[in-house]
Amino acid sequence: MKKRSLIQPRIVPVDLGKIPDAKRISLQNNIPVLLIQAGTEDISRIEFTLSAGSVMENLPLLASTANMMLAEGTKNYTAVKLNKTLDFYGSFYNLFAERDRAGIVIYCLNKHLEKILGLASEILFHPVFPPDELKTLMKKRLSWYLINREKVNSLAMDQFFESIFGSSHPYGRKVIADDFNKIDNAALKDFHSGFYRPETLAIIVAGNIHENTVDLLDHYFGKVVSETIRPTVPGRIPERQKNRKVHIDKPGAVQTAIAIGSSTINKRHPDYPGLKVLNVVLGGYFGSRLMKNIREARGYTYGINSSVHSLDLSGYQIISAEVSKKNTQNAVEEIFKEISLLQRVPPENEELAVIKNYMLGEMVRMFDGPFAIAESFRSAWEFGLDNTYYYRLAEKIKSIESDEITSLAKTYYDIDELYEITAG
Fold this sequence. Notes:
The protein is 41% helix and 18% strand. It has 424 residues and is of the alpha+beta class. The protein folds into 2 domains: 23-221, Cytochrome Bc1 Complex, Chain A, domain 1 (2-Layer Sandwich), CATH 3.30.830; 245-423, CATH 3.30.830.10.
């Protein structure tokens, strides 16, 4: 039998193609609506996002608790009836409360869109925050908190954010056990009336959008008006702590958690795309320098990674890992050695080529389907950007040279400016 010769598939450059853009309209009360027509299935993803994250709260846990309680009973629905109704219509939702924004994402069949929008309006604007459900929730949250206090990674991360943003800023403020007793029904209602209002709301719809979708949105959300004056939020300026090296003692811990990093630029800065590439070289994927050194060569940890995150008032970069007590100092020293090496020696072309292919492949996944497109769109839109951000990011990935990586490492990974947090 004649053997067949194997032919290697042709290698072609990754191309994002054209990313579907959002059509922008306003409801009659000026709520912005962003419509992303994509996909063939008769379903929609509807995101209601508000400027109601933790940066707006005057008590720790207030923003997240208000969000978690939205579906625990409304003016016209008990929590049981609300969830049974959503199940009956084949819909499900995810509540979210982040540092800058909060809201709800609902997935539904288009044929039930009108009913689902009515329920969404109930959840967002007419919650009653039942005291009994609130008491149960806070007991659960306190239990989760106490469990996490036993985890060295949680201790290190809490201290990391306090160090880089300051203890008085919502980005860096630590939660303590007593905070769980300070949230009551009145505080939730005050926060809700101040920040769950049309002036802070935007609606992002993605999927196979029908012609009557805008009319339905206008019917259920375009007539909502604020009944109270929006509270004034004081300026939120992060203030880094002076002590850049902090150890949290956790007797009996088997592992030590390491968090090294600092505050940095966010997506609005022109250097941000290049910083994303630098981060991947350093520790942003399984074949990164930190993984090859700390995990593969030395066996100090099962996993180590670095990441860069964008927030409205700032950004931050962090290298994190868990190692045994005896290897803690060695691991920290090797991390700083890798940063120093990246500042002095440009990456080889072969290494950079692998990084570029990896990152471009990941970008393709970011736009795989209407729901992924919506999530990616929102992560740019909330910084006042649009899809051109992703085209610039892709172009930077393709064009960045080794010496630019080195220059960025010198600028944004100044070792004297990095915080070193350990817990164990």
